[in-house]
Amino acid sequence: MKTLITCLIFSMIVFSSCDKEKVVDETSLPSPAREFIEAHFPSVSISQVVRDRDDLTTSYDVILDNQVKLEFDKSGDVKSVEGTRTEKLPDSMIPANVLGYVQNNYADHFIVEWDKDKTDQEIQLSNGLELIFNLSGTFLRIDN
Asked: In 10 A of CB 21, how many CB atoms?
């Protein structure tokens, strides 16, 4: 009996601490997120928006009709954009220093993924190469 009660209590703790994802309407997106999508993907519709609550943080995962996946923080600031391997991300959404570096050094390739965190930003090129930049857009290294 003690084992059963212990298992039930453990199960309740585990399930109550799990991520809470919920499909929401696109109007639930913070304004900056909607503005970002309208500015950089004007002819693409939003297919799905998922609000993700994990511990004390909230984020929004957005899938567009062209299969581009975007992640925004609770304020609506973009955290990552993942395109398909065959289509480039819009130049307008790539920071100028990063875009310039890629155009000067990898002119035959294009950016298919962009990710920003607290310390740096990372891009992936159409050839699979991953480049790391600081938040100012200065090239740091190639990620293996």
From this structure: 13
Q: How many CB atoms lie within 10 A of CB 85?
A: 11
Q: Over the stretch 16-30, which tens digit does the pLDDT of each residue have?
A: 445 588 999 889 999
Is this prediction's pTM over 0.85? Answer: no
* Model confidence pLDDT, tens digit, residues 62-114: 999 999 999 999 999 999 999 988 889 999 999 999 999 999 999 999 999 99
**DSSP labels, 91-121:** GGGS-HHHHHHHHHH-TT--EEEEEE-SSEE
Structure tokens belonging to residue 53: 């609550």
**Average pLDDT, rounded, for the chain:** 89
Find, among 20, 12, 50, 13, the residue nearest to 33 by Cα: 50
- The total of other beta-carbon atoms located within 10 Å of residue 124's CB is 20
Give yes or no for a contact between 76 and 55, defined as CB atoms under 8 angstroms apart: no
Strand duo 57-64 + 111-116: pairing: unpaired
3-state helix, strand, coil in the chain (%, to 5): 30, 40, 35
